[in-house]
Design goal:
- By secondary structure, the chain is α+β, with helices and mostly antiparallel strands.
- 24% of the residues lie in helices and 22% in strands.
- The strands form three sheets. Strands 1, 3, 4, 5, 8 and 11 form a six-stranded antiparallel sheet that branches. Strands 2-7-6 form a three-stranded antiparallel sheet, with no helix packed on it. Strands 9-10 form a two-stranded antiparallel ribbon.
- β4 and β5 form a beta hairpin.
- It is elongated.
């Protein structure tokens, strides 16, 4: 899946207050975006109708990519997958589970053996099936400002030292570059602190 960069050339030029060769700026932004996505394990930008399979087995299921987007244009479909030829079961929000933020909580039936909460027979009540398929939309319509700042900072490091020099000297002028700019800009401890709030940790398998 091809994802858009987390900043634009115009953003980077405004950040540095100077013009840049387009190809150089685009490459620096693409590399910075990849680092941010790798560290957070999040797409960040909006992805619609993503279909993944996640592990259940608990009462609360956390979606892999955040934030979860649910509205009239972005429906959420949740299917518990039957094991060993068992039937798949499509769940209904408010009947079978409740949604709060990025978490889906499996409910309990009100009076067994009725099916008011929609339980398939033979499954543990109040707990998600071992495997769950989600079709959902996630991400931000606009890149959050603090993430944009990190991307621009990384990209600026890259374009400031394209030749990976430690020290640049011209006659009596000498300039020393920070180690983070050598070999491609790397996330600093401060960058990681900013990104930690966005970091995900739920594994999934993308199906489409």
């Amino acid at each position: 899946m091809s994802l858009p960069p987390l900043a634009t050339v115009a953003h980077l030029e405004a950040h540095l207050d100077r013009s840049l060769p387009a190809a150089q700026a685009e490459l620096a932004i693409r590399r910075a975006s990849a680092q941010v996505r790798k560290y957070t394990r999040q797409t960040i930008t909006l992805v619609e109708d993503d279909q993944v399979e996640v592990a259940g087995g608990e009462r609360v299921l956390r979606v892999p990519q955040r934030p979860l987007v649910v509205d009239a244009d972005h429906p959420l479909t949740v299917v518990e997958l039957g094991d060993f030829g068992g039937l798949d079961y499509t769940l209904v929000e408010g009947r079978d589970y409740e949604r709060l933020g990025n978490e889906l909580t499996r409910g309990y039936p009100y009076h067994p053996p009725g099916r008011l909460m929609g339980w398939p027979w033979g499954r543990v009540r109040g707990v998600w099936a071992p495997r769950v398929r989600l079709t959902y939309s996630h991400g931000h319509a606009e890149v959050p400002d603090d993430i944009l700042d990190v991307v621009l900072d990384l990209a600026a490091m890259t374009v400031s030292n394209p030749e990976n020099l430690r020290v640049e000297q011209i006659e009596d002028y000498s300039r020393t570059y920070s180690t983070e700019t050598i070999g491609g800009a790397a996330l600093t401890a401060d960058h990681k602190e900013v990104l930690r709030a966005y970091r995900g940790g739920v594994s999934s398998v993308r199906l489409a």
